TrEMBL record, chain A:
It comes from Algoriphagus ornithinivorans. Its cofactor is pyridoxal 5'-phosphate. Residues 25-393 form the Aminotransferase class V domain. Belongs to the class-V pyridoxal-phosphate-dependent aminotransferase family. Csd subfamily. NCBIfam families: sufS. This is Cysteine desulfurase.
Automatic annotation (TrEMBL), chain B:
SUPFAM superfamilies: SufE/NifU. Belongs to the SufE family. Residues 20-131 form the Fe-S metabolism associated domain. This is Cysteine desulfuration protein SufE. Pfam families: SufE. PANTHER family: SUFE-LIKE PROTEIN 2, CHLOROPLASTIC, SULFUR ACCEPTOR PROTEIN CSDE.
Amino acid sequence: MNFDVNQIRGLFPVLHQEVHGKPLIYFDNAATTQKPKQVLEALTSYYEKDNSNIHRGAHALADRATQYFENTRESVRKFINAKESAEIIFTKGTTESINLVAQTFGRKFIGKGDEIIISTMEHHSNIVPWQMLCEVTGAVLKIIPVHENGELDYQEFEKLLTSKTKLLSVVHASNALGTINPVKKMIDAAHAVGAKVLLDGAQSTSHLEIDVVGLDCDFMVFSAHKLYGPTGLGVLYGKREILEAMPPFLGGGEMIKEVTFEKTTYNDIPFKFEAGTPNIADVIAFDAAIEFIDSLDKKAIKEHEDELLSYANELTADIKGFQPIGTAKQKVSVLSFNINGMHPFDVGQMLDARGIAVRTGHHCTQPLMKRFGIEGTVRASFAVYNTKSEIEQMAEGIARIAKIKNK
Amino acid sequence: MSSINEIQDEIVSEFEILGDDRESTIFYIMELGGNLEDFPVEEQKEDNIIKGCQSKVWLIADENDGKVHFKADSNTDITKGLISLLIRVLNDRTPEEIIHADLNFINRIGMGSIIGSQRSNGLASMIKQMKLYAIAFQTKLNA
């Protein structure tokens, strides 16, 4: 379908409501996106017609559910251009995907004195799992600094890379600032010293075209709910040879080949990492979300969102007291800011009074906030269904709020 | 001096004048923060921070002639406004009055829906801390 924002909005029931007597303007998309009708219908349809446990049932419903579940795996494979669907593992979310890699790959292949590189702009979920791993193994965490404009300090990154580096785990697009990192270059540089690379795609997959083969990342992680899909579902992509060499994460049903009390042998990938009954309904509904994105074409999405972001930049630029945080050249559609003399929470609450939903606070990136010497920001993040008129209303709200302390 | 309930009635009618416009109501709450007494900078310390608030709220109290006097500050304007309302109702009362005060103005003006759940929890923590101060002073006075 052609990119028609009004037509797209028609697919999202939640957008058509009033909040505090004003039409809802939903700008909290980096936290979670809304879900199109197709996704909601897929969820209902699964429970109404196909509900069944997958993979081993000897009946028609189980067969159908299994087929739909595995169809999504294949759609995800295509969506990120992986070589084979066995390299796609379903998890609870980005956070679990990173923890899985830390607790399996990390414990087996990262030892005392080895180094893991992350950056100052990581989400806590790409910091804490590595700290936990370092505590157990004696490995060392190295941090890439961030420039004032919110871009990574690439020269410092290159200095951190040594033969001790075993893993680079870096965010593709920053949730707090929107910065798109030069990940292809970073992946090649990390590989040159023999390190593996995990790419946190939580914020990039909904905005950018993803090609894991072209990027050559060893792992990529992301969440369905930031991609117009259901909550509680994430993806871990890993290269086959690495996933095969990794020990399992959780033990239980589904992940085994044979269990005896003497010795258990494990199933092949991806099932080795999917212990227990998975989140069947949400996986199946996720297929509808991917289909929705594919129907729009990622290039058109990026163009639309870029236009919204530059319009927002333009309308806020001259507001007295407006302080943008993160002005990298390459950004996804995130506008992070503060207003001089005001607490971000107050600004968020005043925008809420106008029906405008934004996020305020540290965005689970406390070290990054510390780097900028701030407690938090107000973050407006735009998606396919947002409009220029909504941006105008936000800018009007910000101008009115800023005036309180910046006359 | 008006009673606790008279002051609560006053506050309720002030909010009624503002009507349903949420933005004006929030602006008004922020303005109320300006009424707070100056808070000593040296008292902006960890010990005086009220636990359970998302924003930082410092609260101190002393007792004179059997009456409790509160001073408070916050790093956000809306929170300053909220605590200023509590202080307006509870300041310079006896510990007994504070402990038994039924702060019904909060529900009467529908504060919960104005400020949201996070801040409502914070507001409850502020009230709890003020009552704890009152209990402590009462114990001291009865000793």
